[in-house]
Amino acid sequence: MESILQNLNGMAELLAVARSEYVSHWDPETVQRAFQWATYFEHLHGRFRTNTRVHKALADRLLSINESLRNTFGLYRELSFKDVGHCRGVLLASLLSNPALPKTLSDTLFARFRPCCFDTTGQRDQSDLNHLIGIARLKAASKVLSHALKLDGSTATKPYLLLLDPETETKGEMVLKSLETWMRCPSAGPRDKLVDILFAQLQQDKINNRSDFSKIVAAVLLAKQTSTESGAVDLALKWLLSNRCQLQTFCLGVPCALLSELAHRYPSFRCAYLELLTKWARSMEYDFSCGDWRHGSSPELNWKELVDRFMYLLEGPTLVKEATETALCALKADDGDFEVWGISVWTDLLIALKKM
Q1: What is the C-alpha separation between 303 and 187, in angstroms, rounded?
Q2: Which residues pair with 287 in a beta bridge?
Q3: pLDDT at residue 187, rounded to an integer
Q4: Rounded to whole angstroms, what are the CA distances from 257 to 18, 70, 136, 353?
Q5: Which residues contact 24 (CB under 8 A, 6 or more apart)?
Q6: How far is CA 106 from CA 27, 95, 158, 234, 276, in A?
Q7: What is the pLDDT of residue 120?
């Protein structure tokens, strides 16, 4: 019995390491041995799950193990006797969610899902995949429920909450967690490079729908943050503001209400967004034939869209509203301070906004 308890300690340590940056040093042989140990403990669980005495001994030892490993590993996930029953699934989920896992090993792990993966009886071994499917279902259900709860009075003061669907919120949180984990990995490299790599991968995945990618970035910036995650959000914001083209793409792909909220939360984004709208307006020319302002080179940057974006800022929080009003009035004054339609884009913007 004592040897089983000692081995249990080793299994818990193995699962803890699978969630740490040390997994970057693993090779295929190490992964194979890890899954062999996990299989052994699943058999052990099946053998003793109805034996009260052994069950209690293993559960008590796990309490002691959890306390010890919690002090050693910052992101340690406590192991229960129930978890021992699907050790391979826990191991697989831990490895696949770890950004330090080498790509060659992730390819090997994904191969476990292919139809050619059979157990010794000739049947496909679904236990690892079933555990991940269960996690995904619980995660999705919790997000759907949390989204439904947004339909209460909180949306009266935070209407932007309804503009992020549960899937996008979840992806944003996952990106934030991955970035935060990478930042704590000593071998990860320069932080700015981490953001470039992560967002480049996301952009490649969303190449046919750039608005999806933009909304995921918005979800990262609007996610609830712990003190350790705020640094990751700052990096994501710095990446967004570092390139005017990607900022414009982002702003065109995200609903105006979300942009207004971002302008409220982040002064640097507010300045960059107002600067972008200012450049947009300056690029417009007045069309006397229809009595409207048009953007010659970019049809999507139309007058109505421009007015709507300024309107959302003016209807936003006080700081955003005041900054927008100050900018528009200053631009109108610098352009001649006209009061009639069709001469200055700034005059016409203020006239259109007062009518709305």
Answers
A1: 49
A2: 292
A3: 57
A4: 40, 41, 29, 16
A5: 100, 101, 102, 185, 187
A6: 11, 8, 40, 29, 41
A7: 43
- 113-117 CB contacts, 8 Å cutoff, 24+ apart: none
Q: What is the 3-state secondary structure (H, E, C) of the chain?
A: CHHHHHHHHHHHHHHHHHCCHHHHHCCHHHHHHHHHHHHHHHHHHHHHCCCHHHHHHHHHHHHHHHHHHHHHCCCCCCCCHHHHCCHHHHHHHHHHCCCCCCHHHHHHHHHHHCCCCECCCCCECCHHHHHHHHHHHHHHHHHHHHHHHCCCCHHHHCHHHHHCCHHHHHHHHHHHHHHHHHHCCCCCCCHHHHHHHHHHHHHHHCCCCHHHHHHHHHHHHHCCCCCCCHHHHHHHHHHHHCCHHHHHHHHHHCCHHHHHHHHHHCHHHHHHHHHHHHHHHHCEEEECCCCEEEECCCCCCCHHHHHHHHHHHHCCCHHHHHHHHHHHHHHHHHCCCCCCCCCCHHHHHHHHHHHC
Q: What is the dihedral of CA 82, 84, 85, 88, to 10 degrees?
A: 130
Cβ atoms within 10 A of the Cβ of 320, count? Answer: 24
Record the pTM.
0.60
CA angle 73, 134, 138 (to 5 degrees): 80
pLDDT of residue 117: 43
Residue 298 CB partners (closer than 8 Å, separation 6+): 283
Calculate the CA 304 to chain-centre distance.
31
Which stretches of the chain drop beneath a pLDDT of 50? 114-126, 128, 151-156, 207-208
Tokens of 46: 């099946």
Rounded to whole angstroms, how far apart are CA atoms 212 and 223?
16
Give the pLDDT confidence score for residue 325 in this predicted structure.
Answer: 95
pLDDT of residue 156: 46
Please tell me the distance from the alpha carbon of residue 201 to that of residue 184, in angstroms, as a whole number: 20
Contact between 166 and 144 (Cβ < 8 Å) = yes
Give every CB contact of residue 143 below 8 A, 6+ residues apart in sequence. Answer: 166, 167, 169, 170
